[in-house]
Amino acid sequence: MNGKTSFTERLKRRAREFVALGQVLVKDPRAFPPALLVFLRRSVRTMWDARGGGLYACGFVITFVWLELRLLIGELSASSGIGDFVSEQLLEFIFRFTFASIGNSLQAFVWPILIIEIAPPWGALVLVAMFYLFPRYLKKPLERWLFADDPSTKD
């Protein structure tokens, strides 16, 4: 084998992490925010590593998170209440959210085009400036935060 874990194994690991996060929420709600931060940081780190760990990866993560939040807020606001959402629409929401997430992933892949389309030609100039400034000023602090709880990155 080449050292990579299979898709099925990664999916199982994510499911176990999600269940463990739910158990923390039920058993010790005060410990949930830090546990959620670790879970989210690990998720962002996975996307970061898969996209090369540079500006493109950062733009992908930011775009994906933005699109997912918009989707989630839209779904929650469309339901008549949290009780209605949980009791009647949860399964339907999971399927819609999953398929919409695939679309969000595809949109996040082309985030530089989205930046350029916001205000051409200024979007292109902003993108060029980002490619210049990101590795010089933002990459190292961002990596320190992302990998702060990863023992494999300690010196």
What does this structure look like?
- This protein has 155 residues and is mainly α.
- It has two domains: 1-50; 52-148, no CATH class.
- The protein is built from seven helices and no strands.
- It has helices at residues 7-27, 32-50, 55-78, 82-88, 90-109, 111-118, 122-146.
- The model has no long low-confidence stretch (mean pLDDT 80).
Task: Indicate the topology.
Layout: H1 7-27, H2 32-50, H3 55-78, H4 82-88, H5 90-109, H6 111-118, H7 122-146
Helix pairs in contact: 1-2, 2-3, 3-5, 4-5, 6-7
Structural class: mainly alpha
Distance between the termini: 28 Å
What is the succession of H and E elements? HHHHHHH
**Low-pLDDT sequence parts:** none
β-strand percent reads under 5%
The rough form would be described as: globular
Task: Please describe the structure with a list of short key phrases separated by commas or semicolons.
single chain, 7 helices, 155 residues, mainly alpha
Quick structural gist:
By secondary structure, the chain is mostly helical.
